[in-house]
Amino acid sequence: MAAHHEPDRSPEQPLECDHCHYPIPGESEDTDDGRFCSTACLEAADDESAMPEPSAYKRIATGVEPLDSVVPNGVPADSFVCVSGDAGTRRSELLTELVWRALERGEPAVVITATTPPTAVLERFFENGWNVLPALEDDRLRLIDCFTHRLSDREDFLEHRSRWIEFVGATAAESIVAIEEPTELRSILTGLNEALGDLEMTETGLVTIDSLDEFEDHHLHEFITETRATVCKARYVPIVAGATAGNELDPGNESIFDGIVDLRLTDHLEPDVRHRQLSVRKLAGAKHLPQWLTYEYEPARGLFVSGPVRDSGQRAPGAPTPRVAQERR
């Protein structure tokens, strides 16, 4: 093979394959067109263009300041992450901001809502000064509605909406996927996969689920493992799902998730002041700081770091466990 120019590299910067972009651990396959780690990459490069840089799709900076502060190198894009926290920890605001930051980056997003109607989900963005109407118009935001068909009187709900909510509902109508059997997790999975296909979501965007607590079907464990496989692992689209914290559950069931983010309220930092804190309990394939980070929230700004960082090399006594873990059979 023809000689290949040897670039100046330090020992800390190994040569990278020109197709897969991963370090070359041994002898490279050199051609006039590049340097490759294997015959498979060499042959693939002859048939198609090089793969995108791994950092472009395999790791994301979420744009949510407290989360990015404790995961400095980004969240693996093939992760199913549970955000575990009780009322008052701003769990809903965190999920809303994750979607908004993705839209800001020009990426699509899918929201699965089981605790509130789609118009109320959209109203959370407007309350922050985050206008999602262009994203709806550009077909970059899809809502999987697992709530409305749970209502005993849907007609009464629709009839008494305010003019603004009626306008938002009409504007978002084509972006809402109504799940007529919200207790059938297979129906939800089908709706999700159709939305991902419509939005061409592979190696881009994210999915959020407002609360896993609402899915009480005993097939929930199967639903999570299947979405983790078909969405996160196959498409490199992360899923971030909320769950209520509970201490009575078996911590061994944490293995269902790639990552767990704990949110808690604490008053031990200052007398008579209740602080919100965030910590990453686990995150497969990524560096995360073993710390509790104090955060606060403001409309438009979102969540931000507001106080001291405390070491937490292991889960502190009383740290929450996702309630959804009890569904595993």
UniProtKB/TrEMBL annotation:
Domain KaiC-like: 61-303
Keywords on record: ATP-binding, Nucleotide-binding
GO function terms (MF aspect): ATP binding
Annotated region described as Disordered, given as residue ranges: 307-329
Top-rank taxon: Archaea
Xref: PANTHER family: UPF0273 PROTEIN TM_0370
Protein's recorded name: Recombinase RecA
Source species: Natronorubrum halalkaliphilum
